[in-house]
Write a structure and sequence with these properties.
Distance between the termini: 30 Å
Strand content: under 5%
Radius of gyration: 13 Å
Structural class: mainly alpha
Order of helices and strands: HHHH
Shape: globular
Oligomer: single chain
Length: 84
Protein backbone atom coordinates (compact mmCIF):
# COMPACT_ATOMS: atom_id res chain seq x y z
CA UNK A 1 0.00 0.00 0.00
CA UNK A 2 2.71 2.52 0.95
CA UNK A 3 4.91 1.48 -1.97
CA UNK A 4 2.55 3.24 -4.37
CA UNK A 5 2.97 6.58 -2.60
CA UNK A 6 5.25 9.12 -4.26
CA UNK A 7 7.52 11.38 -2.29
CA UNK A 8 9.17 13.34 -5.10
CA UNK A 9 6.65 16.21 -5.18
CA UNK A 10 7.76 17.93 -2.00
CA UNK A 11 6.71 17.72 1.63
CA UNK A 12 3.17 19.06 1.17
CA UNK A 13 2.40 16.63 -1.66
CA UNK A 14 3.86 13.68 0.29
CA UNK A 15 1.78 14.58 3.34
CA UNK A 16 -1.39 14.90 1.23
CA UNK A 17 -0.71 11.50 -0.36
CA UNK A 18 -0.17 9.85 3.04
CA UNK A 19 -3.34 11.29 4.50
CA UNK A 20 -5.49 10.60 1.41
CA UNK A 21 -5.09 6.82 1.49
CA UNK A 22 -7.20 4.90 4.00
CA UNK A 23 -5.18 3.19 6.70
CA UNK A 24 -1.78 4.57 5.75
CA UNK A 25 -2.00 6.96 8.72
CA UNK A 26 -4.60 5.85 11.25
CA UNK A 27 -4.99 8.46 14.01
CA UNK A 28 -7.86 6.46 15.59
CA UNK A 29 -5.62 3.39 16.09
CA UNK A 30 -1.99 4.50 15.63
CA UNK A 31 -0.37 1.04 16.13
CA UNK A 32 -2.51 -0.28 13.25
CA UNK A 33 -1.20 2.37 10.86
CA UNK A 34 0.15 0.88 7.64
CA UNK A 35 3.00 3.39 7.70
CA UNK A 36 4.11 1.63 10.91
CA UNK A 37 3.20 -1.98 10.17
CA UNK A 38 4.39 -2.28 6.55
CA UNK A 39 8.07 -1.54 7.34
CA UNK A 40 8.21 -4.22 10.06
CA UNK A 41 10.33 -7.29 9.39
CA UNK A 42 8.36 -10.37 8.35
CA UNK A 43 9.86 -13.74 7.53
CA UNK A 44 8.00 -14.06 4.25
CA UNK A 45 8.94 -14.14 0.57
CA UNK A 46 6.26 -11.50 -0.11
CA UNK A 47 7.76 -8.97 2.29
CA UNK A 48 11.49 -8.75 1.69
CA UNK A 49 11.97 -5.08 2.61
CA UNK A 50 12.06 -4.08 6.27
CA UNK A 51 12.78 -0.61 7.58
CA UNK A 52 12.80 -1.67 11.24
CA UNK A 53 12.77 -5.05 12.97
CA UNK A 54 10.04 -4.39 15.50
CA UNK A 55 7.63 -1.75 16.74
CA UNK A 56 10.10 -0.63 19.42
CA UNK A 57 12.68 0.58 16.89
CA UNK A 58 13.56 4.28 17.42
CA UNK A 59 12.26 5.43 14.02
CA UNK A 60 9.06 3.45 14.48
CA UNK A 61 8.53 5.09 17.86
CA UNK A 62 9.08 8.52 16.30
CA UNK A 63 6.41 7.82 13.67
CA UNK A 64 4.07 6.47 16.36
CA UNK A 65 4.49 9.64 18.45
CA UNK A 66 3.73 11.76 15.38
CA UNK A 67 0.53 9.80 14.74
CA UNK A 68 -0.42 9.88 18.45
CA UNK A 69 -0.08 13.68 18.23
CA UNK A 70 -2.69 13.69 15.44
CA UNK A 71 -0.26 13.45 12.49
CA UNK A 72 0.12 17.21 12.04
CA UNK A 73 1.47 18.37 8.70
CA UNK A 74 4.25 20.44 10.22
CA UNK A 75 5.86 19.65 13.56
CA UNK A 76 5.94 22.32 16.26
CA UNK A 77 8.85 24.71 15.87
CA UNK A 78 10.75 23.19 18.80
CA UNK A 79 10.65 19.77 17.07
CA UNK A 80 12.32 21.22 13.97
CA UNK A 81 15.30 22.18 16.10
CA UNK A 82 15.59 18.64 17.44
CA UNK A 83 13.97 19.26 20.82
CA UNK A 84 10.78 17.80 22.14
Amino acid sequence: MCAALRFDGGAAAAYAALMARDGVVNTADPPATTLLTAPLYEDSPNHVNATWLDANAPHGQLVLRWIDDGAPQWPPREDRRGRR
